[in-house]
Amino acid sequence: MSSLWSAYAGNSSFDELLRADGQPQDGCDEILRRLRDLGGDLFERQVAAEAAIRSMGITFTLYREGASVDRNWPVDVIPRIITTEEWARVSDGLLQRLRAINLFIDDLYHDQRVIADGVFPGHLLADSVNFRPQCRGVSPAGGVWAHISGSDLVRDETGTFFVLEDNLRVPSGVVYMLENRQVSKRVFAELFRDLDILPVDEYTDRLAKLLKALSPRTDVDPVVVVLTPGIYNSAYYEHVLLASRTGAHLVEGSDLVVDDGDVLFMRTVSGLVRVDVMYRRVDDLYLDPEVFLADSVVGVPGVMRAWAAGNLAIANAPGAGVADDKVVYSFVPDLIRYYLDEEPKIANVPTWRCDDPDDRAHVLANLDRVVCKPANESGGKGVTIGSRATAAELAALRIDIESDPRNWVAQPILQLSTAPTICGDQIAPRHVDLRPFILSGPDPYVTVGGLTRVALREGSLIVNSSQGGGSKDTWIIDPTVTPPRSSTAAVASTTAVASTTAVASTTAVASTTAVASTTAVSPPRGTSDV
Amino acid sequence: MYETPSPLLLSRTAEAAYWAGRYLERAEGTARLIKTHAELIMDLPRSATVGWDPLLAIVGIDTSYLPPSRQATEETVVGHLASNVSNPSSVRASLAAVHRNLRVTRAVMPIEAVEVLTELHHHVQDTADQAVDRRTRGAWLTSVIRGCQTLSGILSETMSHDDAFCFFTVGRHLERADLTSRVLDVQAGVLTSRPDDALTPYAAICWSSALQSVCALESFRRRGRASSAEETIAFLLHDTKFPRSLESSLIQTSRWLLEIPGHETAMAACAEIGRLLQDSHADVLVEDRLHPFADEFQRKIAQLHSRIEASWFAPSHAVVG
Question: Tens digits of per-residue pLDDT, A134-190?
């Protein structure tokens, strides 16, 4: 075996592809063999993938020194593999989780049974920055508030999946999951032919169906819009693709107006057209200057009136972010038991709430051995990994926690799983997480896999693309389907060479034939100088 | 026959499509102008004193008031028109504007067009300095022109000819009419202002160059005409077979405007431009009347633009659905 994989010796983390003894993980035999056979060709595939991303214009936007710059989306071509069997278990767990979370949100905005029954402490709600009193008493269709969510999953050193956090406001990344697949189909065409890799494209159809199903008007074909903060938003690329693939209109706040009858309209070249469903990619607080931040320029004055009057469906519903709080997260296993009378199918990462005096004492005594997270940030902001922080950073963190304990949680530092990643001229283990997306509504759905994010620096745990993280395509593979090709390495590599040659010569022959036959059979065209 | 209603189009998206069309045409037109003028200068004697300032005049910049030390040199003019990012009409800035506007309309565009645009945008932003160097200029300008044409071609051949496409196409033809009228104006100015000067023997070359700069030379020649002022002006004004003449550009603008509901006031402005063209005869325009004609023509184009803006980009609040 080549030295390309030598960086794998002594990897102490759980690896998605390779066990510590150098053998493939369950169900990964064929794929590992094929990857190893590719040898240095893998690097060419990586170059091809980057070229494809550049020409397909797959970008994300970063803010640097007050300006926004487009960056090409970073992808590592070596796929991350999960078996169908394992994925079925994870999907079930996610659907269960979202059922409970939606019941919880609906309860908070109505009777607050969960507080009366002593399962969730009332004072946490009173101090919640994402609880919106303006939403009390509103009843979205089917009691669903968080229609589109993305939960971050990690595996520990035993390979067990845990939920690290739930993103219920405006989770992003799903389009990159779809684009990563387009790219890997371009560069690994032969693997898609030979292996049973489940397709991921169904997501946008399911999303389109879900959004239409939310329409309050059932007698007309609903008008659906995607509300974006605009072309300089970091996720604008995603907003464009979601709109075009679901057949929705991509709108900005200035395209919309609410009339005195609490109906939302969009400005078109033919005049005002009524809007039925809004998939908003704008945070609650910017949604309606009449109700929330008065100086918001990306929102729509009156849109909350239209929603509360039942003339407009909004996904995710305003106020859904109350459950995005990392303190609430720590209660989700209890919420599953309380609302569903079931045991959680995927575990939470153990979490200490600094609001609790005993937990706080433990955290403060072990700051250098835990990960501290502010309760209501996203994108990895404000997270401190104790073992990697300086004494000064830990001192500052201590002050932050002591002055606002309600807004801090801590978790043990997990040894995240790794996956083989191209690093320079080596293939090395790098830490990964996984963000699947969950649709909640009449017909719930979990993406086939999700977006795998990878920390590109050695040992790093930071996977966010805004902080230098990369991504991988996630392949859900049914290992029980036998690949059509024979199974020894020698034969496989011969096949590879042979097929390259075959392709080249076939192309040549085919095109010659085509030219010849065109000349022969087509009637003379143009002038006589042919 | 299978008929579907045009999908709803946001005013903002319509405006972006229209400007994408205008800037795409401007980028292509400006690239061709620079290329042609560079070739013309090589053919003219040094004594002819045709510098690079006519090019600036075409895009609406007057340098006559500048001191001699700040006169337009080849390097400054080409830099200004091709690669200067602070000149909003430079080739580079125009393509950046196309990119920006098509970002807004991206949701209604075919993926192939997005790919070509992305490549063209990166290419131009990365290599714009090649426009200034004489050795690389020709190849660079050709690559830009070809990129613009590829993009127009893909859009015409793959995009639904719905309202978004109509606005894009109206923008292109309106910009094209504007550009052709400027070429005429400036070229005539160069020749008629100095009738006794060393340039007279080269008048035919100059008019050929004018034709070349709107890609009309071959079409013109095939009609068997001599490169005289009168013939050239007549061709660029009235030839309905050549797609970049004023008449053709106007016909195309009207044809696509007619597809868009609510076109009445915009069409009235088109009709005014049509009357102006009808009343303008090449033999009369040759002398000193070409400049006032071009001025009037551009004023009416600006009026058409305002009507388009008022009709669709800032519509009334009538509820239609």
Answer: 999 999 999 999 999 999 999 999 999 999 999 999 999 999 999 999 999 999 999
Look at residue A487 and tell me whether its pLDDT is greater than 50: no
Task: Calculate mean pLDDT across residues B27-45.
Answer: 87
Give the rounded distance of the alpha carbon of A209 from its chain centre: 19
- Residues A130 and B306: their CA atoms lie apart, in Å, by 46
Contacts of A272 in chain B (CB under 8 A): 317-320
- pLDDT, tens digit (0-9, with 9 covering 90-100), for A29-74: 999 999 999 988 999 999 999 999 988 888 888 877 677 778 889 9
Question: For the segment B134-178, what is each residue's pLDDT rounded down to a tens digit?
Answer: 899 999 999 999 999 999 999 999 998 999 999 999 999 999 999
CA dist., res. B12 & res. B23, Å (int)? 16
**CB contact residues (below 8 A), chain A span 174-233, against chain B:** 223, 231
Q: What is the pLDDT at residue B7?
A: 73
* In chain B, domain spans: 12-313
Q: Which one, of A455, A458, A146, lies nearest residue A317 by Cα?
A: A146
Asked if B123 contacts B140 with a C-beta cutoff of 8 angstroms, the reply is no
pLDDT in tens, A402-421: 999 999 999 999 889 999 99
Mind listing the pLDDT tens digit for each residue in A363-407? 999 999 999 999 888 777 889 999 999 999 999 999 999 999 999
| CB-CB neighbors (< 8 A) of A56 in chain B | 111, 114-115, 118
Distance from CA of A11 to the nearest CA of B (A): 40
Q: Would you call B118 and A250 a contact, using CB atoms and an 8 Å cutoff?
A: no
- The closest CB to that of A252, out of B12, B103, B108, belongs to B12
Tell me whether residues B320 and A249 touch, CB distance under 8 A. no
The answer to whether A269 contacts B111, with C-beta atoms less than 8 Å apart, is no
**What pLDDT does residue B74 have?**
84
Q: What is the structure's pLDDT at A500?
A: 36
Measured between CA atoms, how close is B315 to chain A, in angstroms? Answer: 6
Find chain B residues with C-beta within 8 A of A270's C-beta: 8-9, 261-262, 315, 320-321
Chain-chain contact of B107 with A243 (C-beta, under 8 angstroms) = yes
Partner residue opposite A271 with nearest CB, options B108, B260, B318:
B318
Contact A56 B111 (CB under 8 A): yes
Strand partners, A278: A225, A314
DSSP string covering A357-419: HHHHHHHHHTGGGEEEEETT--TTTT-EEGGGS-HHHHHHHHHHHHH-GGGEEEEE-----EE
Q: What is the token pair recorded at A519? A: 């000349």
CA distances A144 to A89, A182, B22, B140, Å, are 23, 32, 46, 56
Question: What ipTM does the predicted assembly reach?
Answer: 0.79
Judge whether A258 and A265 are in contact, CB under 8 Å. yes
How many CA atoms lie less than 13 Å away from A147 in the CB half-sphere? 27
**What is the distance of C-alpha B107 from the center of its chain?**
26
Residue-wise pLDDT for A310-338, tens only, equals 999 999 999 999 999 899 999 999 999 99
Q: Mark yes or no for CB contact B9/A268 under 8 Å.
A: yes
CA A236 to chain B, closest CA, distance in angstroms equals 9
Decide if B111 contacts B101 (C-beta within 8 A).
no
CB nearest A55 (choices: B115, B262, B312): B115
Inspect the interface and report whether the beta carbons of A231 and B103 lie closer than 8 Å. yes
* CB contact A252 to B (< 8 Å): yes
Domains recognised in chain A with CATH numbers:
350-413 (3.30.1490.270)
